[in-house]
Give the backbone structure.
Amino acid sequence: MLRFRYFWQHTRRASHPQGRCASRASFFVRRSDARHWAPSNDPAPAKPVYNKPWLSCADQVALLRNRGLTIGDAAAAADFLAHINYYRFSGYCLAFENPRHQFIAGVTL
């Protein structure tokens, strides 16, 4: 704690009225500031409603086939999607889609 106090005191800005710092020290909470941060009594936000159903890896492979992607080995494609998830893979697919969610003819996995 002594090191932290030393670090905090020697990185303050004199120009700021509360002595706040623009460096990493401003991310720490000083004990004197902790009493001002009380938990709010606001109700928790509502959980979002997801309209898309959950798809297994085999269903995701079928979805990619329906969108025009040529897949040689469906089992290997399902293993690939289990390792690299669909969300990450879809970012790489953007370069091979002409309109969104329609692959250019001849694109293979």
Summary: The helical segments are 2-9, 31-34, 57-66, 74-83, 86-93. Confidence is low (pLDDT under 50) at residues 1-8. Residues 2-34 form one domain. The first helix runs from residue 2 to 9.
